[in-house]
Amino acid sequence: MSTQPETPRTGALARYEQEVVERIANFKDPRQEWRRLFSELLGTFFLVLVAAGGGMMAHAFPNTISREAAVTAPALMVMAIIMFMGKVSGAHLNPAVSIAFALRRDFPWGRVPGYIIVQLIGASLAALFLHAVINVSAAYGSNFPSHGYSSMAAFWMEMILTAGLVSVILGTASGAQNIGIIGALGVGGYIALAGLWASPISGASMNPARTFGPDLIATNFTSYWVYLAGPLAGVALAVGAAFLLRGPGGDKAAIGAAQGEFIAAVDDAARQ
Question: For residue 263, what pLDDT is reported?
Fold first, then answer.
């Protein structure tokens, strides 16, 4: 039995398919890594601009920004960042998230140092900008254990909050859920919820870069160990829980979410 040769596709559909193939190739091109790094720098800058800016603005303008507003604003910013550039870099915005994705085999370890460096730079630039514009110490935008609570209490709080955050991120990125950009709602919602109930004790940082930037500009790292060790311990808990819930990582949907590439279905379609 003879088969008819496949008719080549023309017009708008052909142009669209070619564009998809080219964009996938560009994302996988190591020469495009600078785009991902710039995306992480810019995203972390905006996150810390809002997160640290709330405390600094509240000090400069007393009784204008409530605690509820200060913890909800960063959540909304994270949601927006994931939606507008999550496909470029994965929108980690947080060294703990980059490490968690790498531990799950969803993100190459070789790219982790670059991501963390630009995240720290973005956070520091945001704190520097706030200090220059608002003219108050960047320390007011940092996180510290609350008066009357020990550093260990703040450590435990940061650990459990980060475990929850990373669990949400890993879960919404996995092929089991495969909810795509809607994952931004889950991540942003968790950040707001965690801040609303837990920020009085530790500030609900859940992000070593978010606290590093203001601490660097204020030259005060007195309690920084809490906001480094706590999130890293939380990552270990979340990755362990993810293994128990979904087995080893490395599925195509999770890799796509972590690395900012198109989802596996699009990739497979482009190769056909």
Answer: 40
